[in-house]
Design brief:
binds coenzyme A; 16 helices; three-stranded antiparallel sheet; globular
């Protein structure tokens, strides 16, 4: 008699694990809604602060709610001396995601309400993480460059202040807008690997900072958030040459892609577990990249961008994901490549914490089953002496 076959959902592909009211990804229509609003509309019309409030509260804020949140957020941007000292103690050889992960954990240890699971305390903790993470990211990038910390400014919005802390000068409004767009697009994406990680940790009734710390670990991987760095490394490997035509750059990129695919390499920045006909966020981010290419006068990037995209489409019909246009956009703005995934962290703090609160509000321990395929039951040889 044959054993009944258990259906294995490798990678949980196709498994619907729970309800969520935070966002809806629709691969058939290539659409992404945050609390019902198309993400493209939000990116074009809202600040990241407004989108964060929408994700947490379910509704866009009115003027007074936004002003209250902005005042709170601006008052909590600076890092404690203790956190700065801990960041200083980390070697600059470690990945900046290790610094983010450590900082999220320290921010929990420092938070007097860390163990308070009430919805009010959870929301306040989410606000504090949102406010502090940009300073973590910028401080780390600056110390690696041997530069002094730039203190936050309370007269600038989230994105303008982020760029101020990173580079020590006020960014052009066009750059602030493109950065805001990237934050909005990176904010939330249903049950992706890091968000699901955060929900698993929350389901054990652990605390919010533990869930965010674990989520940062999941995001670090190149199959997830780390892809935006890997995309730019591909561009750098190809060589960004100001002296070649679009057609020449495109041809080089196509040849590189053909070789990579022939060698069966996964090319970062392409493909998606849910979207199979293109990522809904790419056109908006690509438009922001195009504006940044014009702003910084770097048209030579486009030949490489188009060449890789076309070659992948022709060979496998696989489309770019959000990381593909986001990587070169952050590079043009002047961020170091290993800082790209930490930028994603700063954005996704919003989605993670919205999901953590949703999970906690209607919790069930997340604990799937597995089908055992190891050795059949066996026994120690008789008379085996006990190790001393
Ligand atoms: N480069 C080359 N081939 C790819 C690919 C990529 N980026 N993404 C998918 N494929 C191919 C696989 O090799 C496989 O081909 P095969 O059937 O001939 O073996 C097929 O497409 C299915 O891929 P699979 O990895 O099983 O799909 P998935 O749904 O598990 O993968 C990703 C989704 C995101 C993990 C995958 O597309 C990937 O690794 N992309 C690169 C990393 C990345 O950009 N991540 C950011 C996601 S937002």
């Amino acid at each position: 008699m044959t054993e009944p076959q258990t259906e294995i959902h490798k990678g949980l592909a196709g498994v619907v694990a729970d309800y969520t009211a935070v966002s809806k990804v629709n691969p058939d229509t290539n659409s992404l809604l945050y609390r019902g609003y198309p993400v493209q509309e939000l990116a074009a019309n809202c600040s990241f602060e407004e989108v964060a409030l929408l994700l947490w509260n379910g509704e866009l804020p009115d003027e007074a709610e936004l002003a209250d949140f902005q005042a709170l957020e601006r008052a909590h941007r600076a890092l404690s001396p203790e956190l700065k000292a801990i960041i200083d103690a980390l070697p600059t050889t470690c990945h900046p995601m290790d610094v983010c992960r450590t900082a999220a954990s320290v921010l929990g240890a420092e938070d007097p309400e860390a163990e308070d699971p009430s919805p009010e305390a959870e929301l306040r903790k989410a606000h504090m993480l949102f406010a502090a993470m940009p300073a973590v990211v910028c401080y780390d990038q600056r110390r690696r460059r041997g530069q002094d910390l730039v203190e936050p400014r309370d007269d600038l919005g989230y994105s303008a202040n982020f760029l101020w802390m990173a580079f020590g000068e006020e960014a052009d409004p066009a750059v602030v807008e493109a950065f805001n767009t990237s934050m909005v697009l990176y904010a939330e994406h249903s049950f992706n690997a890091s968000t699901f990680t955060a929900r698993v940790v929350t389901s054990t009734m652990s605390d919010l900072h533990s869930a965010v710390t674990a989520a940062i670990g999941a995001l670090k991987g190149p199959l997830h958030g780390g892809a935006n760095e890997a995309v730019m490394e591909t561009f750098v490997e190809l060589g960004i040459r100001a002296d070649e035509s679009h057609a020449e750059a495109e041809a080089r990129a196509k040849a590189w892609m053909e070789e990579a695919l022939a060698a069966k390499h996964k090319v970062m920045g392409f493909g998606h577990r849910v979207y199979k006909h293109g990522d809904s966020r790419v056109p908006t981010m690509k438009a922001a990249l195009d504006r940044m290419i014009d702003h910084y006068g770097r048209p030579e990037l486009l030949g490489l961008y188009d060449g890789l995209e076309k070659a992948m489409d022709e060979a496998k019909g696989i489309k770019p994901n959000l990381d593909y246009p986001a990587g070169p956009t952050y590079w043009l703005m002047g961020f170091d490549i290993p800082t790209f995934t930490p930028l994603f962290v700063a954005a996704r703090i919003t989605g993670w914490t919205a999901h953590i609160m949703e999970q906690a509000a209607d919790n069930s321990l997340i604990r799937p089953l597995s089908e055992y395929n190891g050795p059949a039951e066996r026994h120690l040889p008789g008379g085996r002496p006990v190790a001393q």
